[in-house]
Structures are given as C-alpha cells and as structure tokens.
Amino acid sequence: MSFFDFLINLFKRNKKVSIGLYGHPNSGKTTLANQIAKDWTGKDIGSASNIPHETRTVLKQEKIVIKDGENELDFDIIDTPGIATKIDYQNFLEFGLEEDEAKERAKEATKGIIEAIKWLDDVTGVLLVVDATTDPLTQTNITIIGNLEARNIPFIVVANKIDMEDANPNRIVSVFPQHTVVPVSALNGEKTDELYKVMFKKFN
Amino acid sequence: MEGLKMDFISSEALENASSMEKIYMIIEKVKKGAVVVMEGGLSPSERAELIETTMREIDVENFVGIDVHTLEKNSSSFFGFSKKKTVVITIIGPANVMKTVKKQSNLLSMVADLNNG
C-alpha cells in the first residue's frame, strides 16, 4: 500500500457514513431500513404500517456493516419520516383512528417532516425510496433530488414495491434518466443484493 | 369562501426578495385561501424551506398544507449538448382547495373545491 492509499484509507475510516432514507409517506422507507438492518444485524429498526406517517421521528441504527467479498461499507442508517406538503388528519380517520388520535398523529407528522428536512445537513448519502406503483414525478421527489444535487450528496433512487402487480419501475427510470435507479421489493428482500452492490459503489 | 382568489406574481416582483420574504409571502396568501401563480420557480433550498414553513403553519382545523405544481420547458445549455428542464410557472395553493390537478407536458388543469376554502 502506498503512502497515498494509506492516507485515503485513514480519511475514509474517520469519515462517518450516514445514509438517510428519504421519500414520500408509505413509500416503504422503514420496510427497507428494516430489511437492510435484518440482513446485516439481524434486527429491525422500526415499525411499518399501511397508515401514512407511521414514522414520525427520525430512527437511527448505528454501525451497519455490509460486505461483498473484500468490499465493506460501514454506515449508520437514518430512517426519516415521509416528506409531504400537506397533512390532513381526516385522511387518518379512514384507517380507523379516533379523531383525537388522528389530530395528534397529524401534529407529530408535521414535526417529523421538519426533522427529516433538517437531517439533509447531516447525511452523507441517501436512498430515495419511491413507490413504483405511483407517479414518481412529484414535488416531494423533485425537492429532495434538487437539494441532494445542490449539496453534492450521492444518492440512489430505490424503485420499491416491485412485488406489486401494478409496479412500473421503468417509469421511474424514464423520469430520472440521469440518476441511478435500483428496483427492489423491500417487503420480501427481492433484488436487495443489487442495491447493496450499488451502495458499495456510490457511498464508499 | 365566496370565490377563488388567484394572485399572479411576475418574476420581477420577486427578484429583489430574499428567500424567506418569498416564502412568507406565498404562505400568507395561501393560508388566506388564495392560489399563487408565480412566474419562474423556487430554488431547491427554497422549496425545502417552503415545506418546512408550511409544516410550522399547519393547524389541523384550518390549514392542512399546500399543493405545488409546476410547468417546465426544456432548455439547452452548454452549446446545446445538455438539456435540462426550467420551471416557467409555479402554482401553489391550499391543499384542501386544489382538488383535481391533471398535468400533461404543456398543460396543467386544476379544479378548485370552493366548499373547503
């Protein structure tokens, strides 16, 4: 190993890698965070549900090490609340929540979104989780990508929910042709090996 | 609400405003029920700031947030070698009023629900 390589490795070791999971509510961020954590540490990070804004505070799992032969990526995973421009408590009533509970959930969700945006200053890489069954060209996704580009934060667009019949990951590729898009199913772990390979390249 | 108020803002009107001035002006108008139609777009950090400010202003009974839509045009740069999209019009309105929005490449169609305003 040359002295130059030694210095690069030294800096790499000292630089803490924090990978944030960003995206819309219900895009599958916590399910993906759990899948990654389960694959490499054997335990979950948080609870996922069908009700939007289930994750309302940032969840952090420190020290995940993923390996592929000699490659190793050591990082903290930051699972952020889904980002939205609106929160109507009445939408939660459809999921059987009581009115008070729904209002409280809405209040907590607004705080969670602010916290998620603040964390953009601290993450060193991002997995932008996009629900492949929905239109990916949203203001939320555009805002997240614009901010990542402006801050030079490397990111991967994860086209999630490919296990669903109406998933269309190609639509995500066509909408974001200049970005790396990896289709996965976070729910059943399908194609997560591909994601890990791309993570080595992007975040190491 | 008796009718829908729409505020059209030229890019000249905003060029000397700071990011926070722009955002508070937009939020104040939208909170009062107006739909703001702006010439041009917001920067990525302004868009993030707009979401953050909206979240601070949400009160569960009266203001549930905003809807943002844009119309873009393709613009070439670097002697035409690279193409990127430039926002020409930004529409921001109260989420409970902007009910149906259909977007095609050159057309944005919105139906306002005045009963919720």
Written account of the structure:
The complex is a heterodimer of chains A (204) and B (117). Chain A is built from seven helices and six strands, in the order H-E-H-E-E-H-H-E-H-E-H-E-H. By secondary structure, chain A is an alpha/beta fold. Chain A has one domain: 3-Layer(aba) Sandwich (Rossmann fold), CATH 3.40.50.300. Chain A has a six-stranded mixed beta sheet with strand order 2-3-1-4-5-6, sandwiched between helices. In chain A, a hairpin with a 2-residue loop joins strand 2 and strand 3. Chain A starts with a helix and ends with a helix. The model of chain A has no long low-confidence stretch (mean pLDDT 90). Chain B has one domain (6-116): Translation Initiation Factor IF3 (2-Layer Sandwich). Chain B has helices at residues 11-14, 19-31, 44-57, and strands spanning 6-9, 35-39, 66-77, 82-94, 98-103, 108-112. Chain B has a four-stranded mixed beta sheet with strand order 1-2-4-3. A two-stranded antiparallel ribbon of chain B has the order 5-6.
